[in-house]
Automatic annotation (TrEMBL):
The lineage of its organism: Bacteria, Pseudomonadati, Pseudomonadota, Alphaproteobacteria, Sphingomonadales. The chain crosses the membrane at residues 49-71, 77-93, 161-181, 231-257. This is Fatty acid desaturase. It comes from Sphingomonas qomolangmaensis. Pfam families: FA_desaturase (PF00487). InterPro entries: FA_desaturase_dom, Fatty_acid_desaturase.
């Protein structure tokens, strides 16, 4: 299939065109979009048993390894156990992305179960992503100043890349402040509530993003999760201060959350090319600005779990559940010929993508 065209260039020119033209000028390849939708319609149904099995196993391994990191005396075994805990709980936590997209009637109780197992204990309840992440997929918002999950990182200063990761590593301190301090304060001082909701209630990377008010059932669920998380955070601090929870256990828990957030931030660095500077973009341009890291690469199973290795495909077909993305990619890779823009979003792995980003920041100096 040879359907992509751009300002008079045929599909053979897409690689150079993507680099030389602003993404805002890339038109939609309607044939590719239509074919992708048609060929994956049978993959749209989520498989509840797989969702629950994956989440429960990841959670069980993660917390068991966390206990090992706290209890093991030999330092080497404690470190290995901690690394297993970080990776397993990171996989479990990554289901927040699925929670933000799924029709909840299709996987009954999953949002509640995820929050009980992961969201509240790790102080990142689902309301911080629901109602936020969907804005990243809005055609008129993606890559603009109103996108909570986009920054033109490829055009920023070189020091912005390590700073981007460092800030995420401090997240557990921010979580404690948010829920142990700010939640009670907004109850005692009601006028604080609006700025806290707008500025400190979303998992986002755009510092200019301000969350709009939530109402109705979503707001009721938000309050339930926030109060549960606040009680948990206050309880952690109180238990540690009184010696009920050993300081070592508290520090290792925070270090685990920090490690998870740092890995996710590194993944975020390579989830897109970050080349847009605020223009509205076509869906095809959004796809080309996003990244797939398909097999034969193996390490993405660890640093981009739960379908996140197919991030570009997810932007093309956001309704596909995570377990369908691999099959969808196989089908579409076969259906489109080598000149199709579909293949232009696939990359070999993390090192090359990070190198590309860093080189982009150096050119922007």
């Amino acid at each position: 299939m040879n359907s992509f065209s751009l300002d008079g260039l045929d599909a053979t020119g897409i690689a150079s065109a993507r680099l030389s033209l602003p993404l805002g000028q890339v038109a939609d390849d309607k044939a590719m979009l239509r074919t992708a939708a048609e060929m994956t319609r049978d993959l749209l149904a989520p498989r509840p048993a797989l969702y629950w099995t994956d989440l429960l196993l990841s959670t069980a391994v993660g917390y068991a390894a966390l206990a090992g990191a706290i209890l093991f005396e030999p330092l080497d075994w404690a470190i290995v156990s901690w690394l297993v805990s970080v990776l397993a709980l990171y996989r479990a936590a990554s289901f927040i992305h699925e929670v933000s997209h799924m029709k909840h009637a299709a996987v009954p109780g999953f949002r509640l179960g995820w929050n009980a197992l992961i969201g509240v204990p790790l102080m990142a309840p689902s309301f911080t992503y629901e109602g936020v992440h969907n804005l990243h997929h809005a055609k008129t918002r993606y890559g603009t100043a109103e996108d909570p999950e986009y920054l033109p990182l490829a055009h920023m200063k070189p020091w912005s890349v390590p700073l981007f990761v460092l800030v995420s590593a401090l997240a557990p301190i921010g979580f404690l402040v948010r829920y142990a301090l700010l939640t009670p304060l907004t109850i005692l001082v009601p006028w604080l509530r609006r700025p806290v909701e707008a500025r400190f209630s979303a998992l986002c990377i755009n510092p200019e993003f301000r969350r709009r008010p939530t109402e109705g059932e979503a707001m009721r669920r938000w309050w339930q999760l926030e109060i549960a998380t606040s009680i948990w955070a206050i309880g952690l601090i109180a238990a540690t201060a009184t010696g009920v929870l050993p300081l070592k256990a508290f520090v290792i828990l925070l270090a685990t959350i920090s490690g998870m957030m740092a890995i996710n931030q590194v993944r975020t660095l390579v989830a897109h090319l970050w080349e847009n500077e605020g223009e509205e973009m076509s869906l095809t341009a959004q796809y080309l600005d996003s990244v797939n890291v398909p097999p034969p690469a193996t390490l993405p199973v660890l640093w981009a779990p739960v379908g996140l290795r197919y991030h570009a495909l997810h932007h093309l077909l956001p309704g596909l559940p995570y377990h369908s993305l691999g099959e969808a990619h196989r089908r579409l890779s076969t259906a489109f010929d080598g000149h199709s823009p579909y293949h232009k979003a696939s990359y070999d792995g993390l090192p090359g993508l990070l190198n590309r980003l860093v080189r982009g920041t150096l050119r922007s100096r």
